[in-house]
């Protein structure tokens, strides 16, 4: 009898534990897709990675929390769609290389002008594409690219570009430039441009607008270039396999359908429509 009683108590205890665990799992499942989603980096908060510092027109005044700029404006619209109050959005600074590297991420997703590519998708997970920027040639007046009308003429220039970017891929794969000077960051590229060490660089149109207005006001956008078909556009970046992607994508679709992205592009990212376009 004693043995049987112990066995019965053990079975009862196991059943009770299973019921409690099952109830806990049910609560966690019920909270998914809410601000208390246990899959969030910090439940109750939307934690977002971005550059440090940040630059216009992507974010103004080096202040992601201001909501002024294309990227932070999009994040706050997305956060509201997901149910988060503005004060519940937490920003985490990082370098671009840290964003695209494999491994754990200290945030739910990152927004940092990150282009979706097949190679990056092998080590991180992306949302749907929300913006596809054209490329721009940036140079100083009198540069050899100033009056260029073809890719062949552009290849005669000395180019500089930031390492690890789709700008470098563009030079190598689209313009067929294989001897570009490579720098650790955009600041190094623009310093080289001002020092006459390079003739030109290629960047996204929004970046070019900021460079020529603020960073290097003597510089100019010499021409616009067609998009790279291998660069699918900008997406939100998640740790590989992050289960939040589906929820965020649903909210992002709703934001896009409401015209929020179009409005932000019109406010922050429009280039001069009279700029020359070089296509081949």
Q: What is the 3D shape?
A: elongated
Helix content: 25-40%
- Overall average residue pLDDT: 88
Find the count of extended strands (DSSP E, 2+ residues).
10
User: Which fold name is given in CATH as the topology of the largest domain?
Assistant: D-Maltodextrin-Binding Protein, domain 2
- First-last Cα distance: 90 Å
Number of helices: 9
Assign the structural class, choosing from mainly alpha, mainly beta, alpha/beta, alpha+beta, or little secondary structure. Answer: alpha/beta
Spans of at least 5 consecutive residues with low confidence = 14-18
The number of domains is 2
Cα gyration radius (Å): 24 Å
> What is the succession of H and E elements?
HEHEHEEEHEHEHEHEEHH
Pfam families: SBP_bac_3 (PF00497)
Keywords: Signal
Protein name: Amino acid ABC transporter substrate-binding protein
Organism: Pelagibacterium lentulum
């Amino acid at each position: 009898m004693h043995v049987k009683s112990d066995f019965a108590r053990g079975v009862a205890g196991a059943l009770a534990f299973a019921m409690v665990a099952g109830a806990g799992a049910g609560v966690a499942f019920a909270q998914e897709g809410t601000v208390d989603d246990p899959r969030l980096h910090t439940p109750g908060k939307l934690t977002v990675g971005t550059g440090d510092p940040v630059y216009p027109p992507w974010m103004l005044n080096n202040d992601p929390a201001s909501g002024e700029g294309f990227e932070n404006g999009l994040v706050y619209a997305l956060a509201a769609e997901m149910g988060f109050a503005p004060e519940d959005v937490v920003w985490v600074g990082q370098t671009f290389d840290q964003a695209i590297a494999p491994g754990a991420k200290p945030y739910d997703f990152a927004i940092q002008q990150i282009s979706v590519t097949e190679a990056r998708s092998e080590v991180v997970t992306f949302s749907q594409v929300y913006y596809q920027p054209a490329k721009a040639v940036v140079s100083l007046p009198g540069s050899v690219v100033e009056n260029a009308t073809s890719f062949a003429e552009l290849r005669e220039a000395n180019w500089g570009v930031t390492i690890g970017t789709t700008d470098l891929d563009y030079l190598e794969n689209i313009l067929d430039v294989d001897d570009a000077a490579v720098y650790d960051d955009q600041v190094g590229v623009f310093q080289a441009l001002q020092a006459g060490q390079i003739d030109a660089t290629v960047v996204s149109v929004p970046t070019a607008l900021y460079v020529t207005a603020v960073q290097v006001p003597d510089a100019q956008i010499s021409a616009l270039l067609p998009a790279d078909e291998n660069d699918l556009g900008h997406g939100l970046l998640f740790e590989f396999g992050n289960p939040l992607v589906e929820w965020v994508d649903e909210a992002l679709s709703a934001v896009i359908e409401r015209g929020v992205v179009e409005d932000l592009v019109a406010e922050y990212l429009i280039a001069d429509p009279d700029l020359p376009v070089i296509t081949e």
